[in-house]
Design goal:
It is globular, with a radius of gyration of 24 Å. The longest helix has 16 residues, at 198-213. α4 crosses α5 and α4 runs parallel beside α6. The protein is built from 9 helices and 20 strands. Helix content is 23%, strand content 34%. The protein is α+β, with helices and mostly antiparallel strands.
């Protein structure tokens, strides 16, 4: 049986229960004013001195209360526009709250938004030193750690290039490298890591594991439920600025899936998700050949795509599939039960875990998993489909440039 963070035993939980509070929020509210008419120049203001200054009010956070203990890896999940990033910026002190209390004990290292704190007209060398000092290091310590920061970011050949000539991925690597080197008590990480390439994401996840083992406090905003279940001690689900639930990562992951795809009463079904009352996908993940949940898989090894499903009505001929897309959204591989003998019917109330095992010869990249349940009755029909429900990072010693690196037999006949 695979093990998630919330199933690791009582020892870590007991330590966290006894740890002091690092972040404590009570009744936090945050709203923004959205003016109906904007003026960007002094001339426009002079020409329209009596124009209306009315505005709409956007309530980003409403009565938000939670606690994060020292050493806890805390996940924050929710749909786009739910208030996740606003909450992180309030914790970081970027935004002031309108009411309530928000107390933070310890030094923060925020990695919230791409490019924040960087000057595009300065070189990487200057930006690293300036930002490291701003985050609390002395000038001498910043210089001492400079080589480690650049090495982690893999930017040794671009030290003296201006940041305006960097790609977004290079800027992300540099920003994250600085954030983890400042010995802060609390690291705030937003979804921006999803923009990085597969090999750098692996390094970031390894760094998360190291910091977690060292007892650092990490607040992690993400849409990747596999990462939440792997790393987080607890997680929070935010919906429309309010906390819907705080609990075990695997429970929050399932609830997020239900909210995101409209299975809760009153939920809206966004584009990319569809379902019926007959059956639904509860969660998805990848396992290795030993049954352990993984985020990273080495090329050439056995991997299993796993989907937990629940049936609310009888389904006679279900077909289960998982579509893998690479980081540029190309469909690379579809694992499906249709290639196997037909499955027995499923009864109402029945739950099952479907495992599709394959030899992993995918090219190195980050892949998203989109599971689906379909049926023939008598025509093909999709019962439930979940876009990008989980992810998998494939690693290999070299990149050939293909979508897959299938094994071959080499023969040379000299003539």
């Amino acid at each position: 049986m695979s093990v998630t963070t919330s199933q690791l035993g009582k020892t870590r939980q007991q330590l966290l229960d006894a740890a002091p509070l690092t972040v404590e929020a009570r009744g936090v509210d945050k709203a923004f004013r959205l003016p109906h008419q904007r003026y960007s120049t002094l001339k426009e203001r002079a020409l329209h001195p009596f124009a209306s200054s009315t505005y709409d009010k956007l309530q980003a956070l409403s009565d938000v209360s939670f606690e994060i203990r020292n050493g806890e890896f805390y996940g924050v999940v929710g749909r786009n526009g739910s208030g996740k990033s606003t909450l992180l910026k309030c914790i970081a002190g970027i935004y002031t709250i309108d009411s309530g209390t928000l107390e933070v004990a310890g030094r923060l290292s925020p990695f919230i938004e791409l490019g924040v704190g960087f000057n595009p007209d300065l070189t990487a060398r200057d930006n690293v030193l300036v930002n490291a000092i701003m985050l609390g290091l002395s000038r001498r310590e910043a210089k001492r750690r400079f080589d480690s920061i650049i090495a982690f970011a893999e930017l040794e050949d671009f030290i003296d290039h201006k940041l305006k000539n960097y790609s977004s991925g290079m800027s992300i690597r540099l920003g994250f490298s600085v954030a983890i080197q400042v010995d802060a008590d609390i690291l705030l990480v937003d979804e921006v890591l999803a923009v990085g390439d597969a090999s750098f994401q692996r390094k970031c996840y390894d760094e998360f594991g190291r910091m977690r083992d060292e007892g650092k406090t990490i607040v992690f905003v993400t849409h990747d439920m596999s990462a939440v279940e792997r790393f987080c001690d607890r997680a929070m689900l935010i919906e429309k600025g309010r906390i819907m639930e705080i609990g075990e990562p695997d429970d929050i992951s399932r609830l997020y899936t239900e909210v995101n795809f409209g299975h809760l009463p009153g939920g809206d079904v966004p584009e990319g998700g569809r379902g019926s009352a007959e059956a639904r996908v509860r969660s998805a993940w990848t396992e290795d050949e030993h049954g352990e949940r993984i985020l990273n898989a080495a090329q050439g090894e056995t991997a299993r795509l796993c989907v937990e499903v629940e049936f609310d009505a009888p389904v006679e001929q279900p077909v289960f599939s998982v579509t893998l897309r690479n980081d540029v959204r190309h469909v690379i591989f579809v694992a499906t039960s249709a290639r196997h003998p037909p499955l027995d019917p499923f009864r109402a109330g029945e739950r099952a875990v479907i495992r599709l095992t394959f030899e992993n010869w995918l090219a190195p990249s980050r892949y998203t998993l989109s599971p689906a349940i379909s049926t023939w009755d008598p025509d093909f029909r999709v019962i439930d489909q979940r876009e990008d429900l989980a992810s998998l990072i494939v690693e290999a010693p070299r990149h050939t440039g293909g979508a897959a690196d299938l094994p071959t037999v080499l023969e040379v006949e000299r003539l």
